[in-house]
Amino acid sequence: MYEPIAWFFKPYDHTITDNVLENEVGALNIDNNLVNGERPSNILDFWFDKGEKEYHEAQKPVSLLKFLINLTTRENQVVLDPFMGSGSTCVAAKLTNRKYIGMELDEKYFDIAKMRVEGSNLTYEQKEKRATQLAIFEKR
Predict the structure, then answer these.
(1) What is the pTM for the complete model shown?
(2) Which of 26, 51, 80, 86 could potentially form a cystine with 55 if both were Cys, beta carbons 3.0 to 4.6 Å apart?
(3) pLDDT by residue (tens digit) across 32-51?
């Protein structure tokens, strides 16, 4: 199974090289993101990590999003996810030392994303324990 990912950027009147020199963005960090020692192709093979809970039907693996964020941004830059869902992109941004902005209309998924981002420095076991504790709290 595969799912296409759309990549958008604002067009500019000069070259990518000009943009890199002026703004320190606009090119790919390929040398730091080799796949099995090779430059990445257009097809990337990433799966959910063991213990990575799935919350949303369109959720992407955090490992894939970390790869894409590292490929296209530098530390402390801002990552925008206007359709945040369960927050995987924001979790990946936080784990790669990027700032992030996420937007979600569905309050249920917004709350899940908030919980995931706030706990993204925890191990999966700690996250599961926290989720169980929150579920117990909500049942009362």
Answers:
(1) 0.72
(2) 86
(3) 788 888 888 777 788 888 88
Walk me through the domains of the chain, giving residue ranges and CATH numbers.
Answer: 16-139 (3.40.50.150)
Q: What is the pLDDT of residues 59-108, one digit of tens each?
A: 899 999 999 999 888 889 899 999 999 999 999 999 999 999 999 999 99
Q: What Rg, from alpha-carbon coordinates, does the chain have? A: 17
Say how far residue 64 (Cα) sits from the centre of its chain.
7
Per-residue DSSP letter, 100? E
The answer to whether the CB of 117 falls within 8 A of the CB of 87 is yes
Integer CA distances (angstroms), 22 to 11, 16, 25, 57, 74, in order: 15, 10, 8, 39, 15
Q: What is the DSSP string of 47-99?
A: -PPTT----STT---HHHHHHHHHHH--TT-EEEESS-TT-HHHHHHHHTT-E
